[in-house]
Structure formats: C-alpha cells, structure tokens
Amino acid sequence: MYTFGSRVRYSETDECGRLTLTGIMNYLQDCSTFQSEDIGLGISYLTDRHKAWWLSSWQIVVDRYPVLGEKIVVGTWPYDFKGFYGYRNFTICDQNGNYLVRANSVWFLFDTEKGRPVKIEPEDIRGYGSGNEKRLSMDYASRKIQLPEEYEDTEPVIAQKHHIDTNHHVNNAQYVEIAREVLPDEMEVSELRVEYKKAAVFGDTVYPRISRTEEGYTVSLCDERGAAYAVIWLRGTTERM
C-alpha cells in the first residue's frame, strides 16, 4: 500500500466544517498520482510515451466525513491488471486506523497518439507490486450504472478552465461537483458511483439530467445530443449529521 498523511484544511471543507465529497475525491486522485510520480511512472513518463491512465469508474463509500483540522492517512494499492484495465482500491483512515472512506476504481491505459486503449505491458506497471494484492473488504458494485427512464432537465453548464486537468479534459472529480450542484443542499451522500463515458473538454456544454431513485439520485451529464459524458449515482439521505 502507498500512503500519505494530511490534515483537513479549511479550504477543503463545507458549511458544516467537513471535508467535501469533491475534496475526498481529490485526496484519492492525489494519492494514486503521488504513487505514480514516486516510482517514476508519473505524468511526464506517460506523456513521453503517448500514454495515459484514464478512469472508467468509481465506487466510493463514506463511512464518516473527516472534519476540519482532522489528521488523516490516505492509501491506495492496485490489486489486479487485465488486458488494458487496472483495478485499484483506496482508503482514507483516521489516526487510529479506522476507515473514513473506502473506494474501488477501474482504470484503463490509453494510447493518446492512436486514440484507443492499449494493452498493459510489464514496463507500464513496474513498481506497483504484483497486482495480486488482497482486495479491500466492501460490497463491490457493477461499474455500469442503470439509467432511470424518467428524468428532469436542469440548467446546462459550460466547461470552464477550472474544470480542466493535465489531460485537457474535465477532471474526474469535477463531474461530481457539477452533479452535486443540482442536488438538494441538505443531501448527505454515503455512497457514490461514477461511470465515465466520454471526456468533456473546455467549452463543451454539459446538460445535467436528474432522476430521483429509492436510494438517492442518478445524474446523467450529457452533451447536446443526449449522449452521456458521465453518469453519477448517489446514495444518501436529506438529513445532515
């Protein structure tokens, strides 16, 4: 497992003084990025070889939201590689080792020059371990999210510069930030799933379609033709702790 310690900053908290959902995702993304950089397989290495790891799906379970000033330990490890897919777990723990956040993710290796996924070779994953590490104990959901037939259209969002990352696409966490803006303010998200369909870029118009479900909400972020950039499923209640 690769880990780093941190402390929840004021700039990362919501109106209740807790780490935001986007903040949680940023910590998880940072952890895997730090690991790749530290073993020499980071952004520069991949860019030089016209490759990139792109995220296919998230499943994030929030056991408890970290609070302002709390010291946390963020960890990650890949547990399997198949074809062009990589499977990676994440955790955020308190100082006593208790889980605050547990997550699973599916990634794929992409050839940016040829514009297609590419088979993972040994040199692409050296330093990550055997890929046979034990999976995190959690109820694993399908990376595919079923779309409800009924939905409500909400105001479109233009992809701005602050949404874009080093891949020149809307960052993975920013799709959730966009979806979170159309949900009730008082909603307490306890589990999040995201299925990424295609990348939005600067200037694209994103049309959120929101559906109420028994567990919470499903938000589909679509282009002007109704094709989804990302589908986000959120379990939760409308009661804050």
TrEMBL record:
Record has Transit peptide as a keyword: yes
Residues annotated as domain Acyl-ACP thioesterase N-terminal hotdog: 7-125
Swiss-Prot/TrEMBL keywords: Fatty acid biosynthesis, Fatty acid metabolism, Hydrolase, Lipid biosynthesis, Lipid metabolism, Transit peptide
Acyl-ACP thioesterase-like C-terminal domain residues: 163-217
Pfam families with a match to the protein in the record: Acyl-ACP_TE, Acyl-ACP_TE_C
Top-level taxon of the source organism: Bacteria
Residues of the signal peptide: none
Entry's Gene Ontology molecular function annotations: acyl carrier activity; fatty acyl-[ACP] hydrolase activity
Family: Belongs to the acyl-ACP thioesterase family.
Protein name, entry field: Acyl-ACP thioesterase domain-containing protein
Organism per entry: Lacrimispora sp. BS-2
